[in-house]
Task: structure prediction
Amino acid sequence: MSRPLKIALLAGEASGDILGAGLMRELKRLQPDVEFGGIGGEKMIAQGLESQVPLERLSVMGITEVLGRLPELLSIRKAYYQWAVQWQPDVFVGIDAPDFNLGLEIKLRKAGIKTVHYVSPSVWAWRKGRLKKIRKAVDHILTLLPFEADFYHQENIPVTFVGHTLADSLPDRPATESARIQLGLPTDAPVVAMLPGSRGSEVGKLAEVFLDTLEQVAQQVQPLQVIIPAANEARHSQISEFIAAKTWSFHIHLLDKQADLALEACDAALVASGTATLQTLLWKKPMVVAYQMSAFSYWLISRLATTKWASLPNVLEQRDWVPERLQEAANVEQLTSDLMRALTDIPYRTEYVALASKWHRALALNADQQSAQAVLSLGC
Result:
């Protein structure tokens, strides 16, 4: 090319920031003079992205939650489109956030900009009507899960199954004792990682019930150590307020980020449904998954869904593998029972580790390289 390759990116939340950073790192290796622009988080910024707005402004989940922020989100999307048309990237990569990115991709494609959507919208799970929109939006789609690629092949939509960058980067076996020493934890005490989400709304709904659950577990398992990796500074402050509200009989270690270290150090995890469930699976740690959203959001999503599972481990297995407790089911009594099993049932833990190891191998496909090559095939 007579000028540097220009790649526009847009990640809508922390999990997309991880994928975007890996893609950018590999693009720089393959095309050293590449230029980046768009919106992303700290990991993408570290790879050379100058984010137009903080990623936190896009990170919102649920129907009513989105409606409350809709004017701001539409304003950001309009400004991004205007910037992209002026900057004229060779390729736009929308990372997850389908409700935000697909509409943007349609407009950018009409403006002559090639588009890649990284992370399949869950059309196999709900809202299959979005297939028509996806056809209009993408020149290529990159999927994390194997059955997603089969779905798009059947629909004649260009697709590459790339696996997941976390599966490539995380070790086959966690060094649990070493991680505990690094965190200053006793190596012989029971340890639970608590991951209540990266969004403020998630932490607001889950932090208290998670802490109350751990209080009940601590009555049966002593001396319980709890590690909480806060996703960012705002979540750290928010979680701190919940911790300060009561006196707890377990030891709390609130970290700045460091989710991987927390998961490596733990025996089991209490996790908000989302990408953190895949991260927990890849560390081979038994988990209990929970999620709460507004009653209306849950009602609507439940009626549109064509799959019974919300968490990625259960979606991968297509069965009730890990406990996932949604809405009213995410209560202290139920979560305590689930977490006690994850901590103490040895046959269950052994079977879980074996299956998690199988999925780790299946998803370790050099995702960064595959995704970068797909983007370059459109841009060069």
About this structure: The first strand starts at residue 6 and ends at 11. The radius of gyration is 21 Å. DSSP finds 17 helices and twelve strands in the chain. Residues 63-87 form the longest helix (25 residues).
